[in-house]
Amino acid sequence: MAGDSKKLQPIIIKRVKKGGHGKHGGAWKIAYADFVTAMMAFFLLMLLLGSTTEGDKKGIADFFNAPLKISLLGGGSGSGDSSHVLRGGGTDLSLDTTPDASAPVGSDLVTTTLGEGGSTAVPTTVNKAAATVVVANASGIGGSAGAMSTALQTAGYTMGTPGNSTAGTIDTSVVYYAVGDVTAQGVATAVATDMGGIAVLEMPAPPPYDGDLGTATVLVMLGTDTANKTLADLAAVTVTPPAVAGGTTTTVAG
């Protein structure tokens, strides 16, 4: 009766119940991920806008105003270079061409060009009163240092107490400036120009001056060629100074 036992074998049915995600399911996770992505993109945009200069933003806007024209003409004046985000469009507004508002109003200014080692010259506006100047008498003519000090003060320079040279009498005047002081070099160059174009050199150590320079960073060695002469007299004389370290040329404004 083997066939009858097979017919009586019970049939077992297994049913597996799958659990759900509640009322809302898992769709909220996708929505939340989209929201976080959008917020990240928004704050990234705010960061880029805050760190971009007005000139760069204007250049980007100019590029999108006429991108086809820029691409066909291959760029043009102000189309940008490798330092710009986009190559093309408008003028380069990242260059600040506005006047220097930090310069004191009504002061005597000197436009100085400084360069060294054949490098590109850098124009700098120098205030005559930015450094203290001392005149040392190296001419042997009594009272000449005081007279020149008064004349330079009238011309707008900040003057210290005049004195005498410790290097004896010299025939050719020279202006020394403190080593490494760009402001002093600019003022020294301006003084040399007002005195007819005399030489400008770095100040030796110790300075050839019989007093204490204090805060003075420019020293005028008054030789016999400029002693007892006014600035007007010296301005009428053209002097060709020797080559100056740093290649300094100065144009006095006004």
In short:
The protein has 254 residues and is of the alpha/beta class. It has helices spanning 2-7, 27-51, 54-65, 67-73, 144-154, 182-194, 231-235, and strands at residues 109-114, 122-127, 132-137, 158-159, 163-164, 174-177, 199-202, 218-222, 249-252. The chain has seven helices and nine strands; from the N terminus they run H-H-H-H-E-E-E-H-E-E-E-H-E-E-H-E.
Summarize the structure in words.
The protein is of the alpha/beta class. The chain folds into two domains: 24-96, no CATH class; 109-252, Alpha-Beta Plaits. Helices cover 31% and strands 15% of the residues. The protein is built from seven helices and nine strands. Strands 3, 4, 5, 6, 7 and 8 form a six-stranded mixed sheet that branches. Strands 2-1-9 form a three-stranded antiparallel sheet, with helices on one face. Strand 6, helix 6 and strand 7 form a beta-alpha-beta unit. Residues 76-90, 110-123 and 239-254 have low confidence and may be disordered.
